[in-house]
Amino acid sequence: MIDYQPLYNTLVEAKADAWAKLLPQQLAAAFDFSRHGNLEQWQTVIECLPELATAHRLLDADAVMIGLPDDLAEVDRMELEQQFKALHPWRKGPYNLFGIKIDTEWRSDWKWNRLKNHIAPLTQRLILDVGCGNGYHCWRMLGADAKMVIGIDPLLLNVMQFQLIRKLYGEVPVYVLPMGIEELPAGLKIFDTVFSMGVLYHRRSPIDHLLELRQCLRSGGELVLETLIIDGCLGQSLVPEDRYANMRNVWFIPSIDTLISWMKRCGFENIRLVDVTVTGTDEQRTTEWMTFNSLKDFLDPDNQAFTIEGLPAPKRAIIIANAE
Ligand SMILES: C[S@@+](CC[C@H](N)C(=O)[O-])C[C@H]1O[C@@H](n2cnc3c(N)ncnc32)[C@H](O)[C@@H]1O
Asked: What is the DSSP letter of 149?
């Protein structure tokens, strides 16, 4: 069981008392077994994890590392690996847990390495990571000296994968909460840095998403926005007619100039583009820990510049800005 009291205390300190009061009810509702057929089974996996003692924790390396191979007997490691695999598919990582290398679908460390030298130092900052997946980047943020990291993600499997890792790590100011950004109280204005990575294109209203992010930040706080973009000029945006790279829930893929103009309208300043990268099939791929189809299967086999739907292949931008 996670002790959320330090989180509630931090919210009260930050004058977000209303959310501190609401959060226990939100958590109880989200973790109700009737919400998801597999939730009880996932919780059992976590409860059954052995209490493992280790002094070895490394959060500022590409693979988030907890424990050494020598901390465990081989037979125990094989059992632990089966427990981890019960939470398949593992999409974000990599992790190295007691010598078990979780080679996830995504090399999420590559995204972190693209942005880490461009952001304001995270030292002693209160951080929100919107759509944090299983929390891989939250661990990297703590490794960069954040005061507390709050990740939110509505997908319960992600939250349970995070809880598994947190149980191995021990008590720590990192939380992943089972909710979407729309469930946060309006006008929080408490976070020093807010990350929204890989989320904007999943939102039906990207402008509302930007306004919600703005509302989470204190004045002058920093937004780190990573999203799909297209080549094009101001005003252009791709709205797929149906699927995009097989994903059903992709709504708006703007050009960089369009995205920057949206950000200005939503109260961001000092807006700077720090990276543009085409997503490669070496960054997102099928692995032993994510055995389903991946990017390679969603690109045109004859021309990798296009998706199987004939749309421009995934290209992502990282844009950093400050709340006015
Ligand atoms: C493409 S993944 C990105 C994960 C991670 N941020 C990264 O960059 O590697 C998008 C994540 O956003 C989450 N998500 C979808 N809708 C959301 C919402 N309304 N609020 C917060 N997160 C959401 C999904 O569950 C998913 O884990």
From this structure: E
This prediction's pTM: 0.98
Do 275 and 319 form a contact (C-beta atoms < 8 A)?
Answer: no
> Count of CB atoms within 10 A of residue 31's CB?
15
What is the rounded CA–CA span in Å between residue 98 and residue 114?
27
Q: How would you label 137-176 residue by residue, b for 16+ Cβ within 10 Å and e otherwise?
A: bbbbbbbbebebbbbbbeebbbbbbbbbbbbbbeeeebbb
Residue 65 Cα to ligand 1 middle (Å): 23
Rounded to the nearest angstrom, the distance between the alpha carbon of 86 and the centre of ligand 1 is: 21
The answer to whether the CB of 50 falls within 8 A of the CB of 122 is no
DSSP annotation string for 52-108: ---S-EE-SSSSEEES-GGGS-HHHHHHHHHHHHTT----EE-EEETTEEE--SEEH
Nearest to 89, CA basis, from 15, 157, 172? 157
| Helix residue spans in 106-187 (DSSP H) | 108-115, 136-143, 156-169
What is the CA(33)–ligand 1 centre distance, in A? 22
Q: Which residues pair with 67 in a beta bridge?
A: none
Q: Is the CB of 108 under 6 A from ligand 1?
A: yes
pLDDT, mean of each 10-residue run, the chain (324 residues) = 96 98 98 93 96 92 96 93 98 98 98 98 98 98 98 98 97 98 97 98 98 98 99 98 98 98 98 98 98 98 98 98 98
Q: Are 98 and 67 in contact (CB under 8 A)?
A: yes
Phi, psi angles (nearest 5°) of residue 30: -70, -35
